[in-house]
Design a protein that fits this description.
The protein is mainly β. It has no helices and 12 strands.
Length: 131
């Protein structure tokens, strides 16, 4: 199951906040992804990569479930509502899907192949977890 962790603000003053997403943990890729309200994203899993999703703004409904090598669900779908400053860890063979309850923005980090021309090399699509 995904680890879902609400992060705490490290420093806050009249200039704003500093919030540490990772400490001493480099990543191979990072992407900024936006959602319009009621849009669905993800519906995939990775066989080799661990993905981290950090919610910047908005509210998302997250559904996850473990899958086998063929992408078939091998456990019941779990559902969580997630909002700003939440960090989610998606391990290999964990299907994940998001439905935007509001306009939202996330950062998606990956340990493993993920960026540019390699974007789809460790992305295995599944049918919608919301239909």
């Amino acid at each position: 199951m995904s680890e879902i962790k609400k992060l705490n603000i490290a420093v806050e003053d009249d200039r704003g906040i500093i919030l540490d997403i990772f400490k001493s943990s480099p990543k191979d890729h990072c992407a900024l992804i936006t959602f319009t309200k009621n849009s669905e994203r993800a519906n995939h899993y990775h066989k080799n990569s661990t993905q981290f999703t950090f919610i910047i703004k908005g509210e998302l409904l997250l559904r996850t479930a473990k899958v086998n090598n063929d992408g078939e669900l091998i456990e019941e779908i779990k559902e969580n509502s997630v909002g700003p400053y939440t960090l989610i860890t998606h391990l290999p063979y964990e299907a994940h899907s998001f439905l935007a309850l509001t306009d939202s923005t996330i950062l998606a980090f990956a340990c493993g192949i993920r960026g540019g021309q390699d974007y789809e090399k460790d992305v295995f699509r599944i049918k919608s977890m919301f239909k």
